[in-house]
Amino acid sequence: MHQILSDYLELNNYRKTPERFAILDAVYSINGHFTLDELSAKLEDECHFPVSRGTLYNTLKLFMELRLVMRHRFQGATKYEACYYNGCHSHQVCTICGKVVEIKSPEVSAAINDLHLKRFRKDGFSLYIYGVCSACQARLTRKKGNETKQKPQKEKKQ
Question: Under a CB-based contact definition with an 8 Å cutoff, are residues 147 and 110 in contact?
């Protein structure tokens, strides 16, 4: 990733700043999805390299152009993830708690790879599957069970 970034910066006459490379290293050290605030905290707390919010935002935008980072909008929250090694994948998104889980689906990947599009070259994909996770489903079932027990039974007319 360093070489991709370095080559791009040279080719486009951008400066090779230590901030850009520190952010790249921090992004690729995070396992999974992260917010701008989480990345900022990692840079400050673990890497001892604080950067401004504007620098983070602009650098992530550059990384998205280079396809080093992918941005997701999960239920009103913007999250990012490193994607150089994993540009094609699916996500399960719980509509109750917001939990996001990446899933591997060779069938979906194969279907998209076999899909022929006119005048368009596919680089990758990201699929979002919305539903209710098992933990939330269990809570809903328990809540429904408790409500049923608490309701007084109506007497039947004979």
Answer: no
Question: How many angstroms separate the CA atoms of 109 and 123, rounded?
Answer: 12
Q: For residue 154, what pLDDT is reported?
A: 59
Q: Report residue 13 as tokens.
A: 């006459």
Confidence grade of residue 67 (pLDDT, cut at 50, 70, 90): confident
How many CA atoms lie within 13 Å of 16's alpha carbon, on the beta-carbon side? 10
Residue 125 has pLDDT above 90, yes or no: no
**Which residues contact residue 105 at a Cβ distance below 8 angstroms, ignoring those fewer than 6 apart?**
90, 127
What are the structure tokens assigned to 14, written together? 């951008």
Report the amino acid identity of residue 77. Answer: A
The whole-number average pLDDT for the span 76-84 is 85
Is pLDDT at 158 greater than 70 in this prediction? no
Mean pLDDT across 62-89: 83
Give dist(CA 129, CA 148) in Å, integer.
Answer: 31
Radius of gyration, alpha carbons of the chain: 22
User: In the 8-state DSSP scheme, what is residue 153?
Assistant: P
CB 5 within 8 A of CB 68: yes
